[in-house]
Design a protein that fits this description.
The structure holds two protein chains of two kinds. By secondary structure, chain A is α+β, with helices and mostly antiparallel strands. Chain A has eight helices and 25 strands. Chain B has one helix at about 5-20; strands at about 25, 30-40, 45-55, 60-65, 70-75, 80-85, 90-100, 110-120, 125-135, 155-160, 160-170. The chains are: A alpha+beta, B mainly beta. Strand 17 of chain A pairs antiparallel with strand 9 (about 125-135) of chain B.
Chain lengths: ~550, ~170
């Protein structure tokens, strides 16, 4: 055989392989030209869950707004369309060895562009061959025994979320990329805020989800509440109101960074908001057992619930000795409960308007429950009745954005005095709050020369970070008998990082950002204690907050 | 013996550490639990295990339980505990288990599951953490998949510059 003959045979071999679909696996399919109109319904098998985990009840749901292609063996798209709300599609065309593929991505008809991708960035698809000419019915029933059904549940949940947001928003949603890979727990479940690609965010901005492993491990593709939670973070980033430092956070924490508590509280609230809407308007799209309250947040590991908590009515059984630990603006569950209270009383539109219209651009302050409150007051100028309803909702979580009982005394001319006490006295309760600016509490007291007074703020909550100064009658800062200037920000010996912190965090607990002074007056006189939010407060703390003031005679 | 339990714990810790400040993550239950084989007491196919549970918040009623598959026999030790746990405190359960006589030929890798739970009633929900240890028998059955997966024909193609991972769906 000469060189030309060899070349000819080689060419024939390549052409035959191309036509017979050598790109696939297994036995090559013989080339066959098909002309068909293909119709069908695309469904995936969902998993129902309840308070305690997956119930074992599964039902098929339609795949809405997904991109569907008719493709030939060379990869050419012969026709393309999008499934409708009933999951139906129709495609027609002619080509060699045609097949239909359903992609794990939506077209804009879904209200936003959503793509479910692998960690390598590939969009998932399921495909079936078209075997006949003419009118062909080709339904896709993706069983949950097939891990690809998980990709379509993620797509379905985020379609729900997008439709929900489009009910209250007039702005178009930005495209959403979700990265999930079956049998991979390489990256965890979280939202990456920046376009930087690397570390825990290998594909840059987007939602990353746990995919389990061959030997078990946590997987989140059917944990709808977790999916909605991460969608809330996507919304924050989209509107430009994401200020959380991120990182690990525990549901029972109530000393969190206020920015984190807000962000995670929004994430705890959002699933219940979407599911309440679904329950009213699209109950067939819910995956929850009918007995489940919509406000329940469930995260499963295996088939049982690792987290199961009603965000609108959190149980005290999770807290020590039955105390309510889901309180303060530094608790994500408290923030979620406040938002549910506002939604039930004033509706989702009011919440969205403040979130979208005020928090990204209406304030220089970071996104916290405080700035949400500011936005609510500015946008709505609530009357006395609305203000009363607001206070009820916030006070239920021990959050006091209001004047305290002694606010009218903040005047050095005022005659009311706080008496020094001995022993274990509780102190006088104050709120640092002034919606027109920063609050300053001025409390008068009498002190005797040569005696020692411990003046301190204690029982801090709601992100309070106090600074105390002792002033004389001329409102000058006092230097006491020991030569000490009577100003204190954080009490001496404060340790800012707890042993279990990773990374080191400021804790909005009852004492870390409190203040204390030992005052030994040089002369008996009428003095004033000035308490205000620390001018050097960390970003984790608040502008507002609650504290008690005590003068302890030693 | 393959120390898959340790591997799982290490992987989980790595995931936690990797969640950097630029990522906002899902909430965690305020409990952790792990199971590790500490030492072999010298008998063949016998291991001593330590279960460690801790909480990030003071908890009044924590329940710890160990589920032993039928292919293992517990020789001694504690398999459950209930009580209060304080933040930072660690509760340890120790037990010794051995492969049952018929397990070595069972083509099975028994899995010990452990769970710590702050339980409420049906309506109040629960907060829980779990872990497992997969005991590799010498005859070593294949690792069981967490979810049974249909055999799929998979290939990667391109669509308008985007990679598409196609899974063949079989009726």
């Amino acid at each position: 055989m000469n060189v030309n003959g060899l070349f000819f045979y080689l060419l024939i071999f390549i052409l035959l392989n191309a036509l017979s679909g050598c790109g696939g696996e297994g036995t090559p399919t013989p080339a066959k030209t098909i002309s068909a109109t293909v119709t069908g319904v695309v469904q995936y098998e969902d998993r129902e869950y309840s308070y305690s985990g997956f119930t074992g009840n599964n039902e098929y749901k339609t795949v809405r707004y997904a991109v569907v292609d008719l493709v030939d063996r060379l990869g050419n798209i012969v026709d393309t369309t999008v499934t409708d709300e009933q999951g139906s599609y129709e495609l027609s065309g002619r080509g060699i060895n045609l097949y239909v593929r359903v992609m794990s991505m939506t077209a804009p008809a879904a209200g936003s562009e959503i793509e479910i991708r692998s960690y390598s960035g590939a969009v998932y698809a399921v495909r079936q061959d078209v075997d006949e000419d003419g009118d062909v019915t080709l339904d896709f029933n993706i069983s949950n025994q097939n891990r690809m059904a998980g990709a379509f549940n993620i797509l379905d949940v985020y379609t729900n979320a997008s439709l929900f947001v489009n009910e209250v928003s007039t702005s178009p949603l930005q495209p959403l990329k979700v990265y999930w890979q079956p049998a991979s727990i390489r990256y965890g479940t979280y939202f990456c805020q920046t376009n930087y690609k690397g570390g825990s965010c290998p594909r840059g901005k987007g939602i990353y989800l746990l995919g389990g492993s061959d030997s078990g491990g946590d997987t989140d593709e059917y944990d709808d509440d977790v999916l909605y939670h991460e969608y809330a973070h996507y919304l924050e980033a989209m509107v430009g109101a994401q200020d959380s430092p991120g990182g690990r956070h525990y549901l029972t924490d109530n000393d969190s960074d206020l920015r984190l508590a807000w962000s995670e509280g929004l994430g705890g609230f959002f699933p219940g908001a979407v599911k309440s809407w679904l329950k009213e308007f699209h109950p067939d799209r819910l995956s929850t057992h009918p007995s489940n309250n919509s406000t329940y947040f469930v995260d499963t590991v295996g088939s049982t619930a690792a987290i199961s908590i009603d965000m609108a009515n959190p149980s005290r059984v999770f807290c020590l000795w039955g105390e309510d630990c889901f309180v303060y603006s530094s608790s994500e569950v408290a923030v979620a409960k406040v938002l549910h209270g506002l939604r039930e009383t004033f509706g989702m539109q009011a919440i969205w308007n403040v979130f979208r219209g005020y928090m990204p651009s209406g304030t220089v302050h970071p996104s916290t429950l405080e700035s949400f409150w500011d936005g609510w007051i500015q946008q709505r100028s609530p009357d006395a009745q609305e203000l009363s309803l607001l206070h009820d909702i916030f006070e239920d979580r021990l959050i006091y954005y209001q004047s305290d009982d002694f606010e009218s005394d903040d005047d050095h001319e005022d005659s009311r005095k706080l008496a020094a006490c001995t022993g274990n006295c509780p102190g006088e309760r104050h709120y640092l709050y002034n919606h027109n600016g920063s609050d300053l509490d001025l409390i008068a007291f009498d002190a005797q020369s040569g005696r020692s007074y411990l003046i301190e703020t204690l029982d801090l909550s709601n992100g309070a970070d106090t600074q105390i100064r002792i002033l004389d009658a001329m409102q000058n800062v006092v230097i006491d008998q020991n030569g000490q200037t009577m100003v204190n920000n954080d009490r001496p010996g404060t340790v800012y990082c707890y042993q279990y912190d990773n990374p080191c965090r400021i804790h909005n607990d009852d004492s870390m950002l409190s203040s204390s002074l030992v005052f030994v007056p040089g002369e008996s006189a009428h003095y004033f204690i000035e308490v205000k939010t620390s001018p050097s407060k960390p970003a984790a703390a608040g502008r507002y907050g609650s504290y008690s003031l005590r003068i302890l005679e030693q | 013996m393959n120390n898959q339990g340790l591997f799982g714990k290490a992987l989980l810790m790595a995931v936690c550490v990797m969640v950097s400040a630029m990522a906002v993550a899902k909430p965690l239950p305020p409990l952790q639990i792990s199971i590790t084989p500490e030492q072999s007491p010298g008998r063949e196919n016998t291991l001593e295990f330590v279960v460690r549970a801790s909480v990030t918040t003071d908890a009044q009623n924590v329940q710890i339980s160990v589920s032993i598959p039928k292919t293992l026999v517990v020789l001694r030790g504690e398999l459950q505990w209930q009580g209060p746990l304080l933040k930072g405190e660690e509760k340890l359960l120790r037990f010794t288990a051995s492969l049952a006589n018929n397990a070595a030929s069972a083509h099975d890798n028994p899995v010990i599951h452990v769970q710590a739970i702050i339980a409420a009633d049906h309506q109040s929900g629960q907060l829980a953490a779990s872990a497992f240890y997969r005991w590799q028998t010498t005859t070593g059955g294949a690792k069981a998949a967490a979810v049974q997966v249909q055999p799929l024909n998979v290939r990667v193609v391109e669509r308008h510059g985007i990679k598409v991972q196609e899974f063949e769906l079989r009726p």
